[in-house]
Amino acid sequence: MLVQQWFLIENETSYKKAILRYEQLREAKKGTSEHKEKILLAFLINKYENTQWPLPDMDPVEIIKIRMEEFDFKPADIAREYGDKGTISKVLNYKQPLSLKMIRTFHKMLRIPTDLLTKEYELS
To answer: What's 14-45 look like in SS3?
Structure first.
């Protein structure tokens, strides 16, 4: 079996290839070579995303709103993935904090680093 060698991701083609491979390895068991490859890919993907789509220092909800606009997503698009339109609306209107499941959803759909989604912010 030919093993893929990974290098710094420098273009969209390599990025898409890395994302596809990462998805294939998502459930790799710890301690396996596939798990090691998954960890490497996560690092390389994150590094590329941070250089391509830098985010300003602001509260998580504002970052989510900016990214939704950049990716042309509506709250209903996010709700379809998350499963609850009312909760998404409450979060986007500062009435409810982000849950771990929401952080994972926003990270996956909007390519927002999780550390930016876990910052504290004021609710109204």
So the answer is: HHHHHHHHHHHHCCCCCCCHHHHHHHHHHHHH
Residue 63: partners with Cβ closer than 8 Å, 6 or more residues away: 55, 56, 112, 116, 117
Residue 77: φ, ψ to 5°: -65, -45
SS (H, E, C) 85-118: HHHHHHHHCCCCCCCHHHHHHHHHHHCCCHHHHC
Q: Which pLDDT tens digit goes with each residue over 62-110?
A: 999 988 998 889 999 998 888 888 999 999 999 999 999 999 999 989 9
Burial-class residue 28 by CB neighbours within 10 Å (0-12, 13-18, 19+): middle
Question: Residues 58, 104, 80, 45: is their CA dihedral positive or negative?
Answer: positive
DSSP code for 5: P
Q: pTM (2 decimals)?
A: 0.57
The chain-wide mean pLDDT, for the chain, equals: 88
CB 45 within 8 A of CB 111: no
